[in-house]
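Memo subject: From amino acid sequence to discrete backbone structure tokens
Action wanted: Derive the backbone structure tokens from the amino acid sequence.
How to read it: Take the token row as a discrete description of the fold.
Attached in line: The record itself begins immediately under this heading.
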Amino acid sequence: MFNILKSNQMENLMGALTSVLEAVPDNPLMFEWIGIQSKGMKQWVALIIFQGYEM
């Protein structure tokens, strides 16, 4: 599945991304790719995702 997520507010964007990541794919062995515009944004997204799944 191909998803494009657009928003001017990072909180809304991260909420949409986490809902997509929580959905169970049809083929669990298939790779998932996330394109991010910069290295700094990549680190921020990784941090937010980690905090969301922290136990």
Summary: Residues 10-23+32-53 form one domain. The mean pLDDT is 82.
